[in-house]
Amino acid sequence: MRTNAQMSEFLRAVEIRVREEDMPDQFRAVVEAGWTLEEEARLLRALYSGYSGVGRAEFDDVVHFEAVVNGRGMMDYDLPDAGSERLGPLLRRSLGYACTALLSVPSDGLWPVLGYISLSEGGLNDDMLTAHVTFCSQRPDLPPYVPDVESHKQGALMEISERDAADLLKR
Q1: Torsion over CA: 73, 126, 6, 154 (sign)
Q2: In this structure, are strands 128-137 and 113-122 parallel, antiparallel, or unpaired?
Q3: Is 8 in contact with 168 (CB distance < 8 Å)?
Q4: Dist. CA 153–CA 68, nearest whole Å
Q5: Angstrom distance (rounded) from CA 96 to CA 100
Q6: How far apart are CA 63 and CA 140, in angstroms?
Q7: Which DSSP category does 74 fall into?
Q8: pLDDT digits (tens, 9 = 90+) for 23-61
Q9: Which of 4, 10, 88, 164 makes an SS bond possible with 14, Cβ 3.0 to 4.6 Å?
Q10: How far apart are CA 142 and CA 16, in angstroms?
Q11: What are the residues facing 156 on neighbouring strands?
């Protein structure tokens, strides 16, 4: 698991336990629908079926196509507006979803799939902490989705591998 300084700070600020039960039902349904391989991209089937773009041709590479199709903002409308009462549940939901989805990736893939959780200010006035989770493959012939996670400056960022997901869910 790789994080930038801001995400490391958030992780120290709250007690993190990762459980599948923390994942909202809408995201559980996405994971249960499974993964598919379309246009050389590893995609969450439920998210791809709702994708309205042109397809892989819109993107410079397949990694960014995967990240766009597989990315979603984490449900947060029922959380308090600020503080650790928002941060903790938001992180737990995001981690529960990311870890469960990563562990459901079929083992027949040629490339590992990584999960990315980002936290940043959003909402109507850009004053509320929001979370986004996405997944994309790591391919030796293409640049990574985020070249240097540790130096990322635009919000808090975490990169999770399948192995990280298994370790986090065991705790």
Answers
A1: positive
A2: antiparallel
A3: no
A4: 20
A5: 6
A6: 11
A7: P
A8: 999 999 999 999 999 989 999 999 999 998 888 889 999
A9: 88
A10: 33
A11: 119
